[in-house]
Amino acid sequence: MHDRRALQLFIYSWGVNGFLERRNARFSVIGLTLHGPLFYHGFRALDTHIGAAPTLRLAALKMLTGQLTLFPVYVTLFFVWSSALEGKAPRQALQKLRISFAPVFRAGWVFWPAANMINFLLVPPAGRVLYVNGAGLLWNTYLSYSNAAANARQEEVALAAVPP
């Protein structure tokens, strides 16, 4: 039910009252102020501390280190920051984080280890940003959907709390 409602809101929103444009603007701000700086510095730190990953063992170590250190921070900050950009109160941001963190974190543990292993093992350093941008486009589509689904769940909870 929740996923279907979020999908309906997403489909309805195409070009309606600037909803899609506002979502794109929020994701642009998140990319410029959170995603870009966090992962730029995070991957530089991984390169500094672990180095190149020419072997499966080193690529796995690099991927696990990133998943355990960078990814939980990013998911948490993403939902808090997106809530702030949507004008939500801190209490609502924490509610959205509680609703969304576990499913997004699990999905990220499926998607990003595979994407990063390919990146660390097969993509030359000069092509890594382009490769990760392509993977990130897919991931951001999922994040956008998850964020919209969490907003729909929050609306349902708020409506259910209103007496008839």
Short description:
The chain is an all-alpha fold. 86% of the residues lie in helices and 0% in strands.
Low-pLDDT runs: none
Terminal residue distance:
21 Å
Mean pLDDT: 84
Strand content: under 5%
Order of helices and strands: HHHHH
- SS element count, helices: 5
Q: Largest sheet at a glance?
A: none
Outline type = elongated
Helicity, as a percent range: over 70%
Cα-atom Rg, whole angstroms? 18 Å
Give the structural class: mainly alpha
Work out the number of β strands: 0
Membrane topology: Multi-pass membrane protein
Transmembrane segments: 64-84, 104-123
Family: Belongs to the peroxisomal membrane protein PXMP2/4 family.
Subcellular location: Membrane
Mind explaining what this structure looks like?
The chain is built from five helices and no strands. It has 164 residues and is mostly helical. The chain has a domain of 92 residues. It starts with a helix and ends with a helix. The relative contact order is 0.13. Keywords: Membrane, Transmembrane, Transmembrane helix. It is a multi-pass membrane protein. InterPro entries: Mpv17_PMP22. Pfam families: Mpv17_PMP22. It is found in: Membrane.
Topology:
Elements: H1 2-13, H2 19-50, H3 56-85, H4 90-122, H5 128-161
Subcellular location: Membrane
Family: Belongs to the peroxisomal membrane protein PXMP2/4 family.
Keywords: Membrane, Transmembrane, Transmembrane helix
Please tag this protein with its features.
164 residues, mainly alpha, elongated, membrane, Mpv17_PMP22
